[in-house]
Design a protein that fits this description.
Structural class: alpha/beta
CATH topology of the largest domain: Rossmann fold
CATH class of the largest domain: Alpha Beta
Radius of gyration: 18 Å
CATH architecture of the largest domain: 3-Layer(aba) Sandwich
Strand content: 15-25%
Strand order of the largest sheet: 7-8-9-4-10-11
Shape: globular
Length: 251
């Protein structure tokens, strides 16, 4: 089966420090590939390399077999890779629909055609409404984003990503700061989305990771400690010692 996304020896150095060192990953169709590790392991740097926010020092990123290494973020987005961020990245004073509308319009060829009323872009509206429905906020179309709960705002950010009509998702700690109930809703959302989308998931919530991930990669000090099917990595003694804990602390 041809990988959707693949990295080969991906490395990012900041001076003498290698934040990511020789990382090779494979993500298949409709797969949730979770990356976990302690703070400073290089997880967010990985997402920034995959999305084009950072240029690698060496190695390759392939998307559907095409070399996208070092491409600008907007070009990578137009190829179909959508990403969310650790910190909520929405427009609080806009309605939920308007947030998704702006995301959808940013991917149109004529998104900066200012002398045409935005209401005339039926395709943009359809994409925005679809993004809202997919993220579970269809009933909040005209609710100001600032009036949503924190968990709903995180859902809205995913909805904005979906409004760009990606086929691959990069999700950087989408459940950060959430309570158990809100995390549960996002887990259900990601499980539904995995029927149609491949994704890389960076997450500290181990219960969430173990409930939905197909593949698990554990990073420590910028390097891959273990990578493979969820259960195999979860039960790896080196992983348990380095990250998941021993004895009664094990997940």
């Amino acid at each position: 089966m041809t990988p959707v996304l693949q990295t080969q020896g991906l490395t990012k150095a900041f001076g003498g420090l290698k934040a990511v060192s020789d990382v090779s990953l494979v993500v298949g169709p409709c797969e949730i590939h979770a990356i976990i590790g302690p703070n400073g392991a290089g997880k967010s740097t990985m997402v920034n390399l995959l999305s084009g926010q950072l240029r690698p020092s060496s190695g390759k990123v392939l998307f559907h077999g095409e070399d996208i290494t070092g491409m600008a973020p907007n070009r990578i987005s137009h190829l179909g890779i959508g990403r969310s961020f650790q910190r909520t990245n929405i427009f609080p004073s806009f309605s939920c629909l308007d947030n998704c509308w702006l995301a959808a319009q940013s991917r149109m060829k004529n998104s900066f055609r200012f002398f045409k009323r935005s209401e005339s872009y039926q395709q943009v509206r359809e994409r925005a409404e679809k993004g809202l429905e997919l993220c579970g906020l269809g009933r909040h179309a005209h609710t100001l984003a600032d009036a949503l709960s924190y968990g709903e705002q995180r859902q809205l950010e995913i909805g904005m990503v979906l409004a760009t009509e990606p086929n691959f998702l990069l999700l950087d700690e989408p459940m950060a700061g959430m309570g158990k109930e809100e995390s549960g809703r996002v887990v259900e959302l990601l499980a539904r989305l995995s029927r149609d989308y491949s994704m890389v998931l960076i997450e500290h919530d181990m219960d969430a990771v173990f409930s939905i991930a197909n593949t698990l990669t554990v990073m420590v000090n910028g390097e891959v400690l273990a990578s493979g099917p969820l259960d195999a990595v979860r039960n790896d003694p080196a992983v348990q010692q380095a990250y998941l804990g021993d004895g009664e602390e094990q997940y």
